[in-house]
Amino acid sequence: MNKVPEIMAREGEPDPDVFVKADAFTKKTYRDVYSAIDPTRPNLSQKGKVVVITGASRGLGRYSFAASFARAHADAIVLLARSRENLSQTETMVKSISPSTKVLSIAVDVTDYDSVKRAFDEIIERLGIPQVLVNNAGVIASQCRIVDDDPDFWWRTQEVNVRGTFNVTQAFLKIVGPSPAAPTAIINLTSAAGHYVGQKLSSYCLTKLAITQFTAFLKDEHPQITSVSLHPGMIPTDMGNSASWLAPFMKDTADLCGGTAVWLSSGDRQFLSGRYVAANWDVEELEARKEEIVQDNLLTVRLNGRFGE
Ligand SMILES: NC(=O)c1ccc[n+]([C@@H]2O[C@H](COP(=O)([O-])OP(=O)(O)OC[C@H]3O[C@@H](n4cnc5c(N)ncnc54)[C@H](OP(=O)(O)O)[C@@H]3O)[C@@H](O)[C@H]2O)c1
User: Fold this and answer.
1) Which of 208, 219, 251, 276 is catalytic?
2) What is the sign, positive or negative, of the torsion defined by CA atoms of 253, 63, 189, 230?
3) What are the transmembrane regions (predicted)?
4) Would you call 204 a catalytic residue per the annotation?
5) How close is the Cα of 106 to the center of ligand 1, in Å?
6) Measuring from atom 30 of ligand 1, which residue has the nearest CA?
7) One-letter-per-residue 3-state SS of 32-78
8) Angle at CA 250, nearest 5°, toward 163 and 164?
9) Which residue, by CA, sits nearest to atom 21 of ligand 1?
10) Pick from 19, 46, 124, 133: CA 20 to 30 A from residue 243's CA?
11) Ligand 1 pocket by C-beta < 6 Å: which residues?
12) 102 is catalytic
């Protein structure tokens, strides 16, 4: 993948698609929902499933994942985040999209292991075993060069994005067990930024690289579960708007990654387990290239260089 400084150094008016083109794995790319990932398609129905979404109080958690899984008529959606007030607004939105979907909102800080564990005890008691987990909660607590950063802010991003993802994933794995009876998916929100170096984002970028590798470990340790790290595109949420220099490129819709997450949670997507997927990529082309992706172990993190013989 390209480096941010190389992309930003290109002359003239910024091309809003420059990052999508630079990171295109498929020939066709999208910036809005399209037919194959339309969550209202019968083959993508989430009926019968309990879906847990972290960071569901605003941003992608609300407008991408809660909205799209509601359109796909999940039996129940569990909304996790710290702000009760914002969670109740997401709950109202889900009910307006899909009145039959049960909603359970639990105020929880993902960095607090005991609270996360209690939340999962409540989920199992009230809704039973979940089949989908979207690890979406995330922060960018600092945007500084390493030499200037406040160590607590730098570490806070690690705590929420990495430890938070670990806490929630472990609680989920403990209740779904080693051989889940129903097809089960974990979608971890990563970012193309995990493969970039630049722009005072060392803490955030490292967390996203860690999440991509964490997902590969999940696939290795839990081969029966489909675990995918998803780059959602560039969407103008609170976080998306926090780096003003990225504003010209923030043109993906919330529905694009929402639909992609529903698609990843439907049918047989095992060939993408342990791998990185960008919401901008054409899922039909990914399917057509299944053999190549698996045989050549593509979309995984490697060290550049020539090694061995
Ligand atoms: N937007 C983009 O263009 C973009 C691009 C690449 C990747 N991503 C990734 O997508 C995910 C969502 O991003 P976003 O743009 O929607 O961000 P956002 O608008 O800032 O929303 C972040 C969400 O995370 C929750 N959260 C933060 N700290 C938490 C904590 N300690 N415990 C529980 N929940 C917490 C927030 O809820 P409370 O404050 O109520 O707790 C909020 O719901 C992130 O993982 C981000 O890294 C986004």
Assistant:
1) 208
2) negative
3) none
4) yes
5) 16
6) 109
7) CCCHHHCCCCHHHCCCCCEEEEECCCCHHHHHHHHHHHHHCCCCEEE
8) 10
9) 59
10) 133
11) 54-55, 57-61, 81-83, 86, 109-111, 136-139, 160, 164, 189, 191, 231-232, 234-235, 237-240
12) no
Q: Walk along the chain (309 residues) and give the pLDDT tens digit of each residue.
A: 655 656 666 667 789 999 999 999 999 999 999 999 999 999 999 999 999 999 999 999 999 999 999 999 999 999 999 999 999 999 999 999 999 999 999 999 999 999 999 999 999 999 999 999 999 999 999 899 999 999 999 999 999 999 999 999 999 999 999 889 999 999 999 999 999 887 799 999 999 999 999 999 999 999 999 999 999 999 999 999 998 888 999 999 999 999 999 999 999 999 999 999 999 999 999 999 999 999 999 999 999 999 997
Q: How far is the CA of 295 from the centre of ligand 1 (A)?
A: 34
Two tokens, residue 262: 């529903």
Contacts of residue 274, defined as CB under 8 A and 6 or more positions apart, other chains included, come to 215, 216, 218, 219, 220, 227, 228, 300
Ligand 1: distance of its center to the CA of 292 in Å?
Answer: 33
